[in-house]
């Protein structure tokens, strides 16, 4: 059975047997082995991890915690989804002085008294979700009264307020978000600069070029207006010259008088057969 556990450990860590076990901080063996006898692997296997801080052995069929390895650096232990009923005193005997977070959810613990050994540890968080003991009257108040160091039970504080993450984690998340926002801002500025360069290289005018072009158009427009004003002044000079010529004695051509038109009518009538009296009178007057 130990060989199966050894293989599971190597697979979890991707080790070839020559790895530095003492440097490992987290070891997860969830569902890696099915313990039909409900026992842990030999102490020697897990005690190689001298610096281990987080150990998870969930859903492997454990029913006994006897010979639990002595890992004094262990801070978080996950034993959820197993068949543990009692025997929590073996965790105390293992000397888990650094243990702060213990997950025993979905096990078979039935009585509050079975939790008594945990009072000797310095637990801050204990999860018993889906264990039969949670159905006992005044379960929460009794557990908090039993384990004085406990701050969270089933991910809720003594007032029943759910706590998903610690304040330190929240602060770290806020700092990371601020850093990301700063990075995004810097990226936008750099991006605009690069875009302007690309547009210039590609023959497309940027904002400065467009402003220069607009200034050139305005200057051309002003020049055109000045030329137009010069032309108007020249036209006015021409008109003044014409007026001067008229005043010097040149008389403009007058339209034909009525007598002139009657003369033409009389000449036409001389060639015709019928001549009226008015035409004769007009002709005689001429």
Describe this structure in words.
By secondary structure, the protein is mainly α. Helix content is 45%, strand content 6%. It has 8 helices and 6 strands, in the order H-E-H-E-E-H-E-E-H-E-H-H-H-H. The protein has helices spanning 2-13, 43-46, 89-93, 139-146, 167-201, 207-247, 258-271, 277-285; strands at residues 26-28, 54-56, 76-78, 101-103, 125-127, 152-153. A 6-stranded parallel sheet has the order 1-2-3-4-5-6. Residues 183-211 and 244-286 have low confidence and may be disordered. InterPro entries: AN32, Leu-rich_rpt, LRR_dom_sf. Pfam families: LRR_9 (PF14580).
What's this, in brief?
Belongs to the ANP32 family. By secondary structure, the protein is mostly helical.
**Element pattern in H and E:** HEHEEHEEHEHHHH
Largest sheet: 6 strands, parallel
Number of helices: 8
CATH architecture of the domain at 1-157: Alpha-Beta Horseshoe
Helix/strand structural class: mainly alpha
Number of strands: 6
The geometry reads as: globular
* Helix amount: 40-55%
Pfam families: LRR_9
Keywords: Leucine-rich repeat, Repeat
Region (Disordered): 164-286
InterPro entries: AN32, Leu-rich_rpt, LRR_dom_sf
